[in-house]
Amino acid sequence: MKPNKISSYSLPRAGFFSALENLNSRKDVVEISELNFSQRVRNELARVKPTHPSCKWAELFGLIQTIGTLNISTRGPSLEIKTENAAVARKAVTLFKELGQMDSELIVEKETKLKKRNLYRIRVSAEDFSRIFPESIHSNILDKDVPTFAEDQECCRRSYLRGLFLGSGSVQNPEKTYHLEIRIAEKRFAERLKEFLDGTDLKFGVVERRNEFVLYIKDSDSVATFLTMVGAHSSLLHLENIRIIKDMKNNINRMVNCEDANIEKTITASVKQVQAIDLLEERGMLKTLPKSFQEVARVRKENFDASYTKIAEILEISKSAVSYRLKKIEDMAEKIAKDRRKDQEDEE
Fold first, then answer.
1. Contact between 226 and 235 (Cβ < 8 Å)
2. Cα(62)–Cα(328) distance, rounded to whole angstroms?
3. How far is 184 from 194, CA to CA, in rounded Å?
4. What confidence tens digit (pLDDT) does each residue in 33-68 have?
5. Which residue of 21, 155, 337, 347 has the smallest Cβ count within 10 Å?
């Protein structure tokens, strides 16, 4: 599907931000409260402002490696970042501006079908990019190498993860399921990135899907840890609230299911015990039993659905005493029934 370009213009640095603000104020930009969870996370991360230059480099690095391309045109080579999210576009422009004071070109395109979403393209000349960024950065971008961070650069490592997610990450609504993923176009880069992610104690899986390689995690603890690492604290609270509610519902369901099972077990046992008591009464054998046994039999018939604990409370005896006496009554009834079957067989 070929997008329909509705505007293409170069802006000085001051005008660039003004243009993006105007784009964000339009009616077709959806409020965060109406967005899905993945978009909420991405918009929140776009507002995170790393303070140290190395952290800004790392975040921009992640963005470029996932949604950046090197283009060659009649005007010369250029680096281009392409995104459908205005907040991510603004973040990319901010990082370019703060790290190198580079002039940028903003191109806004609109799809002609389906949801008619805006597509934002931020273009920087390769000359400006080379002037600001060292040659090692260029080779890493071209070769899709994962940057190396020192042990004391945990903040940079997290900024790099944030850039990766802003570029090609998504997370499903935790009300439905726990699933976070980062989509990578090249297999080699996906393998390198998995090794890097394994070093963060987050065990990502890898699967090929529609000519892409998807790095994913599928448990709530890992998703919560990732959101914490990249700085999506508001989204993390939202996830934790949902997780608490889901855990409460699951606990209630387990309790109800357990209670249902216990009731069914009690009713089944009670039917068998009442039948045994009736048989002993019919044979005149119940009144020959000790008074304690007769009392248990009486309470059982009067409280058909009562548990052993409830019967024990009524008679002020132990639960084990109730179980023992009812078991004796059942055994006596079983012996009578067995003798009756034997007599019938002998007659035949």
1. no
2. 75
3. 11
4. 345 899 999 999 999 998 888 899 889 889 988 888
5. 347
In 10 A of CB 164, how many CB atoms? 27
257 in Cβ contact with 314 (< 8 Å)? no
* Domains of the chain and CATH, by start: 4-231 (3.10.28.10), 266-347 (no CATH)
Residue 106's φ and ψ, nearest 5 degrees, are -105, 125
Q: Give the predicted TM-score (pTM) of the model.
A: 0.67
Q: Nearest Cα to 111, choosing from 181, 11, 28?
A: 28
Find the length of the chain.
Answer: 348
Query: What is the phi-psi region of residue 81: left when phi exceeds 0, alpha when psi lies from -120 to 50, beta otherwise?
Result: beta
- In three-state secondary structure terms, 74 is coil
Structure tokens, 37: 């969870």
The one-character DSSP state at 148 is P
**In angstroms, what CA-CA distances link 119 with 11, 25, 72?**
17, 16, 20
Cβ neighbour number for residue 144 with a 10 Å cutoff: 15
pLDDT of residue 17: 47
pLDDT tens, 179-199?
999 999 888 889 989 988 888
61 with 147: CB under 8 angstroms? yes
Classify residue 172 by burial, with Cβ atoms within 10 Å: 0-12, 13-18, 19+: middle
201, with CB counted inside 10 A (0-12, 13-18, 19+), is: exposed
Partner residues linked to 80 by β-bridges? 69, 123
> String of b and e for 294-324 (b: at least 16 CB within 10 Å)?
bbbbebbeeeeebbbeebbeebeeeeeebee
CB–CB of 191/91 below 8 Å?
no
